[in-house]
Amino acid sequence: MVDGKQRTGAAAPLDGGWGWVIVCCCFMVTVCTRAVTRCVSIFFVEFQAHFGADYSATAWIHSLVDCTTMLCAPVGSLVGNRWSCRVAVMLGGLLSSCGLLLSSFSTSLELLYLGMGVLTGLGFALCYTPAIAMVGCYFRRRKALAYGIAMSGSGIGTFVLAPAVQLLIELYSWRGALLVLSAFVANLCVCGALLRPITLQEEEAEGQEEEPVGEERPGSVSSKDAELALKLSKDSEDSLLSSGKSSSPSSLLSRDPAPQLQRRRCFCFLSSKEYRFLLLPDFLGLAVSFLFLASGCSLPFVYLVPYALSVGVSHQQAAFLMSILGVIDIMGNITFGWLTDRRCLKPFRLACYVFSVAMEGLCCLFMPVLRSLPLLVPFAVLYGYFDGAYVALIPVVTSDLVGVQYLSSALGVVYFLHAIPYLVSPPIGGWLVDVTGSYTATFFLSGAAMLASSLVLATVAGIRYCRRRVTDIAKDTQHKPLPSILSDQSECFIAFNKEEVSQGVAS
User: Fold this and answer.
1) C-alpha pair distances (Å), 175 with each of 83, 102, 103, 105, 358
2) Which of 281, 387, 409, 494 could covalently link to 274 via disulfide, CB atoms 3.0 to 4.6 Å apart?
3) What pLDDT is attached to residue 28?
4) What is the pTM of this model?
């Protein structure tokens, strides 16, 4: 205990300290990735005029950026697991900056697909997931608030970048604007350099101080367990050396957990155990919900500016709508993060997430009747607020479902599920505009997809609640006192079972 307290004093404290630097870095990462991606739609009119393309052709640029970012999200998790999130973010910043730089010299849409879509999206993927997972490693009690502040970078970035990008296009054309964005995105390398890893021992020691004596957290490692693991690992090494059999590195890692406690960062080493959460029924329902959500959430960001221009709104006013959406997005990030950290709402984080997604869907269904700037402003306010709410709650809900030890891998899978819908939904929306001559079908598609997402997750939440009630009833019946003879027999059986399990582990 004394050694543990001494290590804790030298460790970085959770819920504060350097954790706020991590939050600021994640904030800048979301500004440079998600906000820049949202502002791609501002270039659509320029691309159409310069290359003579239609809506569906130019929409592939935005969909490729989003798709590559989400499709390669597991790659970002793997790079962070194998090396560190510092390496992943700095490498991603370099790739994304080079992608935007090459895009400024493009002479065809195909080159824009490759540079702005694939290369920039790959760089964003290497930055996004590791930076978000780092926030979950540094915060426990104020996790939702920390994520709200970190994820608000997309809203603040949209608020600032939307009119700035429009001004840059007017002053330097779209090529000059992409050059400036390339220099701006290079700041991801600076953010990555500040992402200091936190070891598992520091994390566990802090958790032991916060919790009462005698209680254990799920996934915690006690000193007795570490000593037992060290003894078992030495025995297994002796048996391996005596038998002369070769073993793979993964098997050695699984049999020798003591060095892992010293070297292990907030991300786990690569193993199949990191993806055990994929077998959870609740996570499967969450995955289906994310598929519907990703099919509809990107369409308003892609087609809000073109729709506003089609109903007679000027270019500056259309860009101003994106700014309003971005600044209200900030309020949704921070207020929902703060509210869901309150003790009264903490058990209902999943319900708050479902409510915010459903409200976004309803906003999209009413979009076709809004045909003037005074009517489009309330849409931008409501949609931006609830968009910020659900974006801030995605990592929180995922962490509550799978646990912190699986958060990095789970976020990689979660954002990977967004990839294909992000790829196909903007071109489908553009095709609907070209066929019907209006944006009504596109916004109806967006609203229906998000309502389906909320319905699926509400069903999962209801099943989870019923299962929890059944489990509580079963526990109450099991806690009834047994006769003395039966209790003695059960104690003997438990002792025998423990001895059998320990012998099996040693063998």
Assistant:
1) 36, 10, 8, 7, 39
2) 409
3) 92
4) 0.62
Which one of 242-246, 325-329, 347-351, 445-449 scores highest in mean pLDDT? 445-449
Q: Could you give the CA distance from residue 68 to residue 88 in angstroms, rounded to a whole number?
A: 16
How many Cβ atoms from other residues are within 10 Å of residue 472's Cβ?
9
Name the nearest CA neighbour of 175 among 120, 116, 125: 116
Name the residue among 361, 414, 384, 341 with its Cα closest to residue 157.
Answer: 384
Check residues 37 and 253 and name the one with the higher pLDDT.
37
pLDDT for 274 equals 67
Element at 312 (helix H, strand E): none
Segment 128-150 shows an average pLDDT of 84
User: In sequence order, which ranges of 311-439 are alpha helices (DSSP H)?
Assistant: 315-339, 349-365, 373-402, 407-417, 419-436
- Whole-angstrom distance, CA of residue 291 vs CA of residue 15: 32
Is the pLDDT reported for residue 40 higher than 90?
no
Within 8 A by CB and 6+ apart from 224, the residues are none
Rg (Cα) of the chain, in Å, rounded? 25
φ/ψ of 383, rounded to 5, equals -65, -40
The DSSP call for residue 342 is S
Contact yes or no for 162/39 (Cβ under 8 A):
yes
Whole-number Å distance between alpha carbons of 346 and 440: 38
Distance CA 163, CA 312 (A): 18
More confident position, 241 or 168: 168
Residues 6+ apart with CB under 8 A from 65: 37, 40, 116, 117, 120, 121, 124
Residue whose structure tokens are 């510092």: 86
Q: How much is the average pLDDT of 93-115?
A: 91
Burial code (b: 16+ CB inside 10 Å, e: under 16) for 142-163 equals: bbbbbbbbbbbbbbbbbbbbbb
Give the whole-number percent of the chain exceeding pLDDT 90. Answer: 21
The span from the CA of 196 to the CA of 4, in Å, is 21
